[in-house]
Design brief:
OB fold (Dihydrolipoamide Acetyltransferase, E2P), alpha+beta, 464 residues, Beta-Lactamase, seven-stranded antiparallel sheet, LytTR_DNA-bd_dom, 3 domains
């Protein structure tokens, strides 16, 4: 994670009166969101249309008693708490409070100015209450859980009117492998602005805490590679090792072909693991990881369609653990052992692909049909869409999430910064040493580079 900073919250949404008038209209059911930042508008839509959060809610609800999270995340939360406590003095001096939550939005601890904490307690901004966006509306902690970038929520940008006197800045700590939120760190001030250094404080703490998860992921990858090597010596069936997110850490040549990836080299580092172009396989791998995390002795199997066959292939998932912690699964092709996984491959609902991509322009959300999108490009923490309606910022937070949403819908990740619509490729330019560059059919005929690791998949899908 790089140093954290949030989007410039200045005009037009810096005018709290303008935002409040837009909030009043939106609460009444109108769609006029002039003067509201796009990320806030999207959050409000979730609160009103998806979660049905009462905008007149005055206090957060009690959090659920049981929260399902991995044991190693407790270590991360403890470290985050230590780091957050170190900020308490500086934040308290400006009348602010520091709060941490777990991945469900449950407040775990709080430090800072006692007067502000007393005010916060009236709204249940205190330990054991839930500040997930779906429970308490747009707020620094809950909205950060849904964002891959830091968030700043000022005054009337909060969905619930009772919280309009607060300014909050939050950032989520995410699992390096699954990208699921583990915890959030939040700074809040009542009837005052956050200190100018708040973004730096949050960024530094998040960066230091994230290192624990990154090192754990490296260790997990090494253990999975060792388990693969041991299993490979006693097996003749195609074999792959996948992490809990369904990405390939290592695979033999046959398994790599079945999964539609180039010949795999060991990838302890999550940043260089391969994502199979088989949504059903990824879903099965994620289901297997969840089952094994609750039952270490679990083994399961299912059937999936691979790249080479018209008939489904049997696959068996066997979990691999390190000190009682699930690191991934070994996947054997052509075997059917253990419990059957739920069959979703032929389920029409499971195969349903997104019909729209949501972009933002000023204060409006633009609903785009998939053929209207030529490609998506990441630019720092933003994702930009090249569309028939011009260049728009994507509503999806992060290129990884957009890639997942469009997986199997004719879009392909060709570079760490680009996801392209395969049907919008006009030309393919071959360069020195076999490198490829895609010429898109957008207005500018943009040239999109293909990374070396993605070249085989592009050649296969384009049949070149």
């Amino acid at each position: 994670m790089t140093e954290v900073g949030w989007h410039d919250p200045t005009s037009p949404s810096a005018d709290n009166a303008t935002v409040y008038r837009a909030w009043e209209r939106f609460v009444r059911g109108e769609e006029d969101l002039r003067g509201v930042r796009p990320e806030i508008a999207i959050s409000w839509h979730r609160c009103r249309d998806q979660h049905g959060v009462d905008p007149h809610l005055t206090e957060a609800p009690v959090a659920v008693a049981q929260v399902d999270h991995a044991l190693e995340h407790d270590v991360v939360i403890a470290e985050l708490g230590f780091r957050a406590a170190s900020l308490a003095h500086e934040v308290g001096n400006v009348g602010g409070i520091v709060t941490i939550t777990d991945g469900s939005g449950r407040v775990l601890a709080q430090w800072g100015d006692q007067t502000t904490r007393n005010v916060a307690a009236k709204a249940n901004l205190a330990p054991w209450f839930c500040w997930a966006e779906g429970a308490t509306g747009t707020n620094g902690m809950g909205t950060a859980l849904l964002s891959y970038t830091p968030v700043l929520i000022r005054g009337a940008e909060h969905w619930c009117e009772a919280f309009h006197d607060w300014t909050c800045g939050g950032v989520a700590i995410r699992d390096v492998v699954t990208r699921e939120p583990v915890a959030t760190l939040n700074i809040s001030c009542w009837r005052s602005e956050l200190p100018g250094t708040a973004g730096t404080w949050l960024g530094n703490v998040a960066k230091m805490t994230q290192r624990i998860l990154r090192q754990r992921a490296q260790d997990d990858g090494a253990e999975l590679i060792a388990a693969y090597s041991h299993a490979r010596s006693g097996s003749r069936v195609p074999l792959a090792a996948v992490d809990p997110a369904g990405k390939v850490v290592l695979a033999d040549d046959t398994a790599a072909v079945l999964l539609g990836i180039p010949g795999s080299t060991p990838a302890a580092d999550p940043a260089v693991r391969w994502k199979p172009e088989l949504p059903e396989f990824i879903g099965a791998a994620q289901y297997a990881a969840k089952q094994a995390s609750h039952n270490p002795g679990w083994v399961g199997s299912t059937q999936i369609f691979t790249r080479l066959a018209n008939e489904p292939t049997s696959v068996t998932f066997r979990p691999v653990f390190l000190s009682g912690h699930l690191v991934g699964n070994l996947v054997s092709f052509g075997l059917s052992d253990g419990d059957p996984l739920p069959r979703t491959a032929d389920d029409g609902a499971a195969r349903t692909q997104p019909q729209r991509v949501v972009g933002t322009r000023e204060n409006r959300m633009v609903l785009l049909r998939l053929p209207e999108v030529s490609f998506a490009q990441s630019d720092g923490s933003d994702v930009w869409l090249s569309t028939d309606q011009g260049r728009l910022r994507a509503a999806s937070p992060g290129l990884d999430k957009l890639e997942t949403e469009l997986s199997g819908a004719g879009f392909l990740r060709v570079h760490r910064q680009y996801v392209v619509n395969l049907s919008r490729i006009r030309e393919v330019e071959r360069r020195i040493k076999g490198e490829l560059c895609l010429v898109m059919d957008d207005e500018a005929n943009t040239m999109v580079p293909v990374s070396r690791r993605n070249t085989p998949a592009v050649r296969q899908l384009l049949e070149i």
